[in-house]
Amino acid sequence: MKKLFAVLLLLSFNVYGSAQPSGLVKVDGSSTVFPLTEAVAEEFNKKFPNVRVMVGVSGTGGGFKKFTAGEIDISDASRAIKKEESEMASKNNIEYFEVPVSFDGIVVVTNKNNGWAKTMTVAELKRIWEPESKVKTWKDLRPEWPNRPIKLYGPGTDSGTFDYFTEAIVGKAKSSRSDYSKSEDDNVLVQGVAGDLDSLGYFGHSYYMENLKKLNAVSIDNGKGPVEGTEANIGNGTYAPLSRKVYIYVSKAAAKREEIKEFVKFYIENAATLAKEVGQVALSKEEYQKVAKGFEKFMGI
Hints:
Layout: H1 2-11, E1 23-29, H2 34-47, E2 51-55, H3 59-68, E3 74-77, H4 83-91, E4 96-111, E5 119-121, H5 122-129, E6 151-155, H6 160-170, E7 181-183, H7 186-194, E8 199-204, H8 205-209, E9 215-217, E10 219-221, E11 226-227, H9 231-236, E12 243-251, H10 252-255, H11 258-277, H12 285-299
Parallel strand pairs: 1-2, 1-3, 5-10, 6-7, 6-8
Antiparallel strand pairs: 3-12, 4-8, 4-9, 4-12, 10-11
Helix pairs in contact: 2-11, 3-4, 11-12
């Protein structure tokens, strides 16, 4: 019996010589970052089976609302934290550390049977999405395109993808026409575009990669000719202006718990490999090393 107890005791210790962490890691926020965080959580659980990781999707803005109120440990974000969100965190005595985890591109997509809208200029996208847009049909954009209504799909206003897209394309964050089908869940947008011949939508690159058989990606012309939203073009910045870094934010108070600290360290160590698996683009090895050192300093490790 004593031998069995000794074996069980040894199994409860990890390679660092301390007890295996247990507990709950609460994450919420961006639907764009969700696939990567979910993949990290799955691999993390194999190493730390006593830790439960809950990953929600309420949009970047929704995640920051919960994060700055102290309701979650980590916030997934497809944009950097805003000044007013940072001020709310400070008001609630929440210190945080920003972790860039990958590059992601926003892909403009059409139905798989759309044979005409293969490329679009940034100016055309602006005409479609700007407030009070007069574009109602495909023909309103180009005379040779069908005289049928465009059915638009896009993220809701709590989405960091919405913020980034409107700023990059329209010229002002959150400045957008409102007569389109909205959802914070990119899978809902995928289903909408896949089910309607005259649809047009936008969301993160990873969701396009998961649905290649259902969707077409529109190449974007920013003045230098059409550029496809491939991983290579997203990573080298030529897919402009729809490439951006995405992040997780971790609360310092939460990260003092062993399970949170280990999860963040694991995330940084494995983000490069897992980003590629979910259709995102890894940062440089040097950047991950810099972030890892920054997190250690932040935590006083």
